[in-house]
Amino acid sequence: DQQVKQNSPSLSVQEGRISILNCDYTNSMFDYFLWYKKYPAEGPTFLISISSIKDKNEDGRFTVFLNKSAKHLSLHIVPSQPGDSAVYFCAARTSGAGSYQLTFGKGTKLSVIP
Amino acid sequence: DAGVTQSPTHLIKTRGQQVTLRCSPISGHKSVSWYQQVLGQGPQFIFQYYEKEERGRGNFPDRFSARQFPNYSSELNVNALLLGDSALYLCASSSEIFRDDYGYTFGSGTRLTVV
Does A101 sit within 8 Å of B45, measured CB to CB? Predict the structure, then answer.
């Protein structure tokens, strides 16, 4: 059973427009959410995070929104740039017994068209 | 500063063999975690080590084991390899057991192919 779901395997957006990547989760014990970006042949790179006690976090062109009642979060990229083309992973943190682990979605491949 | 370094980059093993993957965290980072990423899936948690102690283990069989050394580097061992173990193995490090501002820094991974 997938606890973190990214239902769109791919997304194409025109350069300069907004990219919206979505993520749904089922586990109410997740207390932190992160977005990572991954280029081919590289490891995931941290993008932005949000605590479960907040509903929005912004960093430059990137904004993450969290709707706890709907168990849904989204990543907004404005304006989108060709260099943003990558696979984006949503990840959720569980903590307990002195350990922290991330549960990842399957990823969404974003293509920004010049 | 050097990032998280993993070795080897790629390797091919035969079913039933054993493999050891290595990870050097960023200097000063005491937490090392291992993740397995199968093609088409997101990374899946295998182990977390912090200050040389195992802090967490994911849902993986006992064929998987790991350790962390006094210099905070880490090894992941997989015994009796199966075809399904073919994956990208990612190492992630952090200065604390978890950093709210960046979570973990990942290496580029070791691509293991089991034939």
Answer: yes
